[in-house]
Amino acid sequence: MVRGFSIWTCTCAAQVVLLVQASASVFCATLVKRQEWRDMTNNQKIQYIDAVKCLQSLPAKGLVEAARTRFDDFQAAHINLTDEIHLVGQFLPWHRRFLSVFEKTLRSECGFIGGLPYWDWSRDVDVYNSINKSPVFDSVYGFGGNGIYIPGYAGPFNNLSNLPGWVPGTGGGCVPMGPFTSYNLSLGPGTIPTNHCLTRAFDDEYAWALSSTQVANTTKQPSFEIFRIELEGQPVTPTMKLHDGGHFAVGAEMLNTYSSPGDPVFYLHHANLDRVWWTWQQLDLPTRLFDVSGRSTVDPPFVNITLAFELKMLNLAPLVPIRDIMDPRAEPLCYTYV
Ligand SMILES: [Cu+2]
Fold it and tell me: What's the gap in Å between 278 CA and the centre of ligand 1?
C-alpha cells in the first residue's frame, strides 16, 4: 500500500484500479487520535469518562434481555461471542473491530469528540513493578482504583479462577471510589446475568508480564501466527503474556474471559494490545499489513482464517471481512495512535 499518495490526484485510471486492488483500503477523510491516558488533559479525561457514563445511561437495543444499557450491549456481544473470538486467528481482528465500533458509538450516540484512549501499562510496570499507582486508576481523572479487600477472595467464579498456581488479588470487592461506583452491572460474571457492582482485585504478582521488555519480546516475533500467540497468552502459551497479564493484573471483573468488558478499563487495555499489533505491522508494513492466520475455532473441525473471514458484531454493527480492518488508517476504522 502506498501512503501519502492521493488517488484523487492520479490521472491514470488503470493506476487507480491497481492501487485500490492492492490495498483494498479506502482512505479516511480524517483520523481520530488515540492517546495514552496519562498524556491526555484532565479535560479530555473527563470528556471520555462522561461519554462512557452516557453510554451507561442510554437504553439497550435488545441483544439480550438482561442488558439494560448501551454499555451493556457491548458486554453482551462479547459474552455471546467469547468462545469464537479467543485463542483463534480472529482474536486480534475481532477486538480491533469491536473497539472501533465502541469508539464510534461513543462519538455518534454520546457526542464524544476524541479517540478511544489506551493504557500503556509498561509505563507503570517499568517504574513501579505494579499497576497500583497508574493514573488510569485515579479516582477523579481515572477509572477508580482497586476493589475493597475481601479476605479469602477466590476469583470471579469463586473457584480460584481454575488456574493452577493462581495467586488471589488484593481486593475482590466493589470499587469504592471513582466515576463508576454507582453503575450497576447486569451481566456476568461469565455468562450469568446478575446485578452487581464493578469489582477489581489488583494483583501485582502478574505485573511483570506487562513490562516494556515483554512488549519488545512480542513485537520481535517474525510472523502473525507466532505474534498473535505470543501476545494473547495462556492457555496456549505456558506463561502469562500481555493480553492475559493485563486481565489478571486488574483482576475480578477483568479476570473473566466472557464478561470482562463490564470494566471500562477493558477498552483501554485492549486498545493498547491493538496498538502493539499495529506497531508490529508497521515494523514491516509490506509483509504484515495483510498478514493474518490461525485456526477459526478452538475445537476441530477448524479452518485457517483468511482476509475473507467475516467478523460478527451481532446487533452492534454489520459483518465485515478481516481484510477491511487490517489498516487502522483506512475505512471503516480511521484512527491513529499518538
Ligand atoms: Cu475478548
Answer: 18
pTM: 0.91
What's the gap in Å between 64 CA and the centre of ligand 1?
18
Q: Calculate how far, in angstroms, residue 18's C-alpha sits from the geometric centre of ligand 1.
A: 36
Report CA(3)–ligand 1 centroid distance (Å): 31
How far is residue 64's CA from residue 313's CA, in Å, rounded to a whole number? Answer: 13
The answer as to CATH 2.30.29.150 being correct for domain 28-337 is: no
The pLDDT tens digits of the residues spanning 216-274 come to 999 999 999 999 999 999 888 989 999 999 999 999 999 999 999 999 999 999 999 99
Q: What's the sign of the alpha-carbon dihedral 234, 236, 237, 241?
A: negative
> 15: pLDDT confidence band, cut at 50, 70 and 90?
very low
Query: What is the enclosing helix (H) or strand (E) of 20?
Result: helix 13-23
The per-residue pLDDT for range 291-324, each reduced to its tens digit, is: 999 999 999 999 999 999 999 999 999 999 999 9
Cα 185 to averaged position of ligand 1 atoms, centre (Å): 17
Distance from Cα 247 to the centre of ligand 1, integer Å: 10
Nearest to 36 by CA among 136, 146, 141, 138: 136
Compute the distance from residue 7 Cα to the ligand 1 centre, in Å.
36
Domain ranges across the chain: 28-337
Q: Please give the C-alpha separations between residue 106 and each of 30, 70, 161, 335, in angstroms, as whole numbers.
A: 17, 10, 32, 14
CA of 86 to the centre of ligand 1 (A): 6
Distance 39 CA to ligand 1 centre (A): 25
Residue corresponding to grid cell 475445537:
299
- What are the pLDDT digits (tens) for 166-213? 777 889 999 999 999 999 999 999 999 999 999 999 999 999 999 999
Ligand 1 mean position to 98 CA, how many Å? 9
Query: What's the gap in Å between 133 CA and the centre of ligand 1?
Result: 25
Q: What is the DSSP letter of 146?
A: P
